[in-house]
Design a protein that fits this description.
The complex is a heterodimer of chains A (147) and B (288). In chain A, 49% of the residues lie in helices and 10% in strands. With 147 residues, chain A is mainly α. Chain A has one domain: Sufe protein. Chain: A (Alpha-Beta Complex), CATH 3.90.1010. In chain A, α2 crosses α3 and α3 runs parallel beside α6. In chain B, α8 links the parallel β6 and β7. The longest helix of chain B is centred in the middle third of the chain and has 12 residues. The chains are: A mainly alpha (147), B alpha/beta (288).
């Protein structure tokens, strides 16, 4: 199950607003951009998250054991929230089977960000979660092939 | 010698300062830099050194009614950020200064006229790779005293807008063309905040806010360019009463600033109820 994600959500729910802001920034600082071995600029529009004003991209790599590894890019330099969410999704979902990741719900954005969801960000952040879920569902339908 | 901003020919160039000016005044005790954003994480992720954070929802809006803070709330805010009546407040923020202009406008409800906007806002400061800080500054608390909030000169209410349109007064809809036409009830990528109908206030001219800025750096266009946009292309007269609106009053604060301070419109008000009120109100006319 999505234990690591739930633990992270539980942790955020214990925080007061100031601590939540600090923790989100800490995650944003840990954001790692997609490596050139996975994708290089200009990134394919097929990996772009729709409705995300932070101009986020997401890729999923299916590993031989059936788990997924996620990679992200956030092109808007002001995309602090998108970077934070990308880091959280990578740390909590990468390494899980696609079948588990496919159950993730975009409602986690509200649980994590609370008052830090701005009007223009909420839709894009939920779209990031939906994109991760869609990639997981696609991976379930696609058998692993080694290159 | 005129500064680059003065050379642009604005009616009130003192209301706008450059990033250079701000950099030269970050430690000026008579200046308080204020960052106001839509994204609440941005200030904490790094801001102009010495700048304080004023949040439009928690600091400027009343928490129990759709309105702004009271005189007591404004006095408490200004005292908290260490401002006096003599402090020059300088606003900047994300979204090409939407919320900076909104905060500037709210401050005018209380008559704090020693106020400026940093041209280009947060993005320009970062693009120029100027210093930022994550330290939250602390200033000695003051005992700021304010007069009562006076909405009339710069704020328009629903019934005033209705009377204004019936007199065929100047109305500016600063939303996107799709919102104006009624084919969309919110900005692209934004949630629908509940307007029941799409369209615009009858008689309003569609002049999207972004036409007032240079897209590369978010700075305001020159007075000559703004005059062409508002006065020549759209036939607005600076001498006639004008009301600007958008969805909740943030984008129209940006246009309000441009009309009042850069072009010198003598009577311009911001209708902060905007489309989220007008598009939902019983009995009000709309056009598509």
């Amino acid at each position: 199950m999505l234990d690591k994600l739930q633990q992270t959500i539980d942790m955020f729910q214990m925080f007061d607003p100031a601590d939540r802001t600090s923790m989100l920034l800490s995650y944003a600082d840990q954001f790692k951009e997609v490596p050139p071995s996975i994708a290089t600029r200009p990134f394919s529009k097929s990996h772009q998250v729709p409705q995300c004003e932070s101009d986020a991209y997401v890729w999923a790599q299916k590993l031989p054991d059936g788990t997924l590894k996620f990679y992200f890019a956030v092109e808007n330099p002001s995309g602090v929230s998108a970077k934070a969410l990308a880091a959280i999704l990578d740390k909590t979902l990468s390494g899980l089977p696609a079948s588990e990741i496919a159950t993730v719900n975009c409602g986690i954005v509200e649980d994590i960000f609370r008052q830090n969801i701005s009007m223009g960000k909420g839709m894009g952040l939920m779209a990031m979660v939906n994109a991760v879920q869609a990639l997981a569902k696609a991976a379930i339908a696609t058998p692993f092939r080694s290159n | 010698m005129a500064t680059p901003i003065e050379q642009r020919g604005y009616a009130h160039p003192d209301a706008l300062v450059s990033t250079d000016w701000v950099e030269q005044h970050v430690t000026d005790p008579g200046v308080r830099l204020i960052e106001s954003n839509e994204d609440t994480l941005l200030y904490a992720s790094g801001h102009v050194p010495g700048a304080v954070h004023v949040d439009w929802t928690s600091d400027l809006n009343d928490q129990l009614r759709r309105d702004y803070i009271t005189r007591a709330g404004f006095e408490a805010l200004m005292s908290k950020i260490g401002a006096t009546k003599d402090t020059t407040v300088v606003f900047y923020g994300d979204k090409n200064n939407w919320w900076a202009c909104y905060a500037f406008w709210v401050f005018q409800l209380f008559g704090h006229t020693k106020a400026k906007v940093m041209d280009g806002g947060r993005v320009k400061w970062l693009k120029e790779e100027r210093a930022t800080s994550r330290d939250t500054p602390s200033y000695p608390k003051t005992s700021y005293t304010s007069g009562e909030r006076n909405d009339a000169p710069v704020r328009a209410f629903r019934d005033e807008v209705l009377a204004h349109l019936e007199k065929k007064g100047q109305l500016v809809d600063v939303r996107s063309p799709e919102e104006y036409a009624g084919t969309r009830m919110h900005m692209p990528d934004y949630p629908n905040e509940g307007a029941l109908r799409g369209g615009h206030v009858p008689g309003a001219k569609s002049i999207p806010w972004a036409k007032a800025i240079n897209p590369d750096d978010g700075t305001f266009k020159s007075a000559e360019e703004l005059k062409k946009l508002y006065q020549e292309d759209n036939k607005l007269s600076p001498a006639n009463a004008t009301i600007a609106y958008c969805r909740i009053g943030e984008r129209s604060s940006h246009t309000w600033f441009a009309l009042k301070y850069l072009l010198g419109f003598t009577n311009v008000r911001n209708y902060d109820g905007s489309w989220t009120e007008w598009g939902n109100s019983v009995g009000l006319p709309i056009e598509k």
